[in-house]
Amino acid sequence: MCFNYLGRFDSTLDADAPWRLLPELPGANQDDRQPRPYRLEITALVVDGRLHVRWTHVPALHAPEEITRLAERFQAELVALAEPGVPDALGPLEATYPLSPLQKGMFFHTRYARDSGVYVVQLTFRLDGPVSPTAFRAAWTRLTERHPVLRTSFHQDGNEDPIQRVHRGVSLPWREEDWRGLGDTERESRLSVFLREERARAFDLAQAPLFRLVLVRLGDDAWQFVWTHHHLLLDGWSLPVILRELFTCYEAEASGEPAVLAPVRPFGDYLDWLDDRDSGDAERFWRGVLAGFSAPTPLPLGSGALSDGAGCAELVLPVAVTEALGVLSRRHGVTLGT
């Protein structure tokens, strides 16, 4: 038997290319009288996110119904592999991936200190003016449906490598509160406590989605939005993308017009790319860069400085300097924070 996986054909042709892949079978690619080195040939490839498997056999050796039964059993095994022991409450799966190396580190630290709130990220901002909670919630629903990572949970059985599962549908963790009856001082105090409590609430990594959304009405035209999520889902580069799409979707929902958004590449594509990299080359590179270091680099602080409390200093740079730093960071492909 010969099994030949040809890989992904999803990105072989650009969207504006003059060629298209035919959905129809092109027919035999060799003479039926040609001697075959294998009794059964199985060819697989991925097109438009779907796995295609072609079975080529010798009718004199295997009847068509035999091959059909074999293919059906093969498909059943694939389905079982894609959904290993998933409770019914989580619903059907869209994909199952390994974790990236960085995700593995976060996953370990989160499980090691389960109730510490480590890697819990919180964004909160004020919205002034007329806001439609219905449209805002619908925009988040659209983003959750659009981005698989927002429907992802993380699992580990025993000593097996951890995996992440993308669920086809999740319940949006949305909450609304009305604080218009509170005074300014009480409202600020309550917000401070609320934000601290939200950050302290750990996520169950096995339960998707790993984020929480709260819209608080402070006044007739004043709102506070709180988005708390686990760092396993998103990094600093991803947050501006999500926020831009959020307000694009919100404006579309509020106006009744369709939102125009760029196509999304699933996180699995990055993991496929990562899997093709030579980890030995990376290790050799970093061993060369770090050659000569035998101990951690200390922070430039005096003895005991970390236990003497905390202070705060603020420096505001001129606009011209800030813009120049932005140009520099873009030129080198790093964030302004870096």
Shape: globular
Average pLDDT across residues?
A: 87
What structural category characterises the helix and strand content?
Answer: alpha+beta
Rg, rounded, reads 26 Å
**N-to-C span:** 53 Å
SSE order, as H and E? EEEHEHEHEEEHEEHHHH
What can you see in these coordinates?
With 338 residues, this protein is of the alpha+beta class. Helix content is 33%, strand content 21%. Strand 9 and strand 10 form a beta hairpin. It is globular, with a radius of gyration of 26 Å.
Summary keywords:
338 residues, alpha+beta, four-stranded mixed beta sheet, three-stranded mixed beta sheet, 8 helices
Short description:
It contains eight helices and ten strands.
Write the layout of secondary structure elements.
Layout: E1 2-8, E2 40-47, E3 50-57, H1 64-82, E4 93-98, H2 101-112, E5 120-128, H3 133-146, E6 152-155, E7 163-167, E8 174-178, H4 184-200, E9 211-219, E10 222-230, H5 238-255, H6 267-275, H7 279-289, H8 319-331
Parallel strand pairs: 1-2, 8-9
Antiparallel strand pairs: 2-3, 4-7, 5-10, 6-7, 9-10
Helix pairs in contact: 3-5
